[in-house]
Amino acid sequence: xxxxxxxxxxxxxxxxxxxxxxxxxxxxxxxxxxxxxxxxxxxxxxxxxxxxxxxxxxxxxxxxxxxxxxxxxxxxxxxxxxxxxxxxxxxxxxxxxxxxxxxxxxxxxxxxxxxxxxxxxxxxxxxxxxxxxxxxxxxxxxxxxxxxxxxxxxxxxxxxxxxxxxxxxxxxxxxxxxxxxxxxxxxxxxxxxxxxxxxxxxxxxxxxxxxxxxxxxxxxxxxxxxxxxxxxxxxxxxxxxxxxxxxxxxxxxxxxxxxxxxxxxxxxxxxxxxxxxxxxxxxxxxxxxxxxxxxxxxxxxxxxxxxxxxxxxxxxxxxxxxxxxxxxxxxxxxxxxxxxxxxxxxxxxxxxxxxxxxxxxxxxxxxxxxxxxxxxxxxxxxxxxxxxxxxxxxxxxxxxxxxxxxxx
Length: 408
Description:
Oligomer: single chain
CATH topology of the largest domain: Protocatechuate 3,4-Dioxygenase, subunit A
Distance between the termini: 66 Å
Strand content: 15-25%
Largest sheet: 5 strands, mixed
Helix content: 10-25%
CATH architecture of the largest domain: Sandwich
Number of strands: 16
Number of domains: 3
């Protein structure tokens, strides 16, 4: 009698059974469940061969664009909501405690320790924001000497680690709460910005009618002995995209009002001139022990991390008033300029086909290197820094392509 045909269920059972000899019980559970759910997905949607091939190509492209400065796999996790789900599973807090959210891609340890009320901006970066409040426990008691680590973007939508012109310590700092749990610092009102959307994840967002925007927020990490560490965002309640965050990180309790103040407001802190905003924010910690260090999983774009050939990250000055196509515009940095390099990073006379469009007041620059042999050797480094956000509704490209309108 002929054998019955093999069914999809037979294939799934055999694949799951292949992990039965795995010595690590947790690993076995993970691999068996992953295989079951992956097969169930394929069966549910009736996965076609051409769709399977497209998925393999997307994963391959993700591997190619990922390097020491860019983690496209984590970006997939972020934009599919998995990063927030894992964070929620790992960081459940009792009612009344400030809710956590994901670390985000731009955390860098070692921020300067600043005094109570100090300004975290090293240069002009937007409307000053007086952020103040207390660190408390669930019973409303002050948590003395809690450590706060703060970082944010400015009105150009860039974090310091993205901006070659910014000082290393710009818009970040560490603070220590006083005996009564109070803390204060001068920040700037944050602005929305886009996640990197020039790779496979960006193509997915475009194909599915989604946008790459994140609402305006300030990042905080709060630590204190005897309490669970808190990693969170504080969102501007007036920001767009609160209901449509590209990485699903908004929790309603974390949206707060930045209150507008006049220049002559009697409560104006020293050092602030002109109009400003204030944010009163109490941070409530849950008791527990948490000795874990904050780990950046490899998605921060660090400046100068690619060695001597890429160490020059200052903005390239225009050297003459009668510059030709071989001279990049004054705003275009060497890592952004698409000239066919000679190995030193400088453009050559053959770069005339490259068009650098001057940025508008609100611009997102997606910068791509040329496809010459020298450019191809550096293409992965260029892609790792390819999305530099500094505005809202235009993409101006340091390439031969035309600007592209994006939502905002």
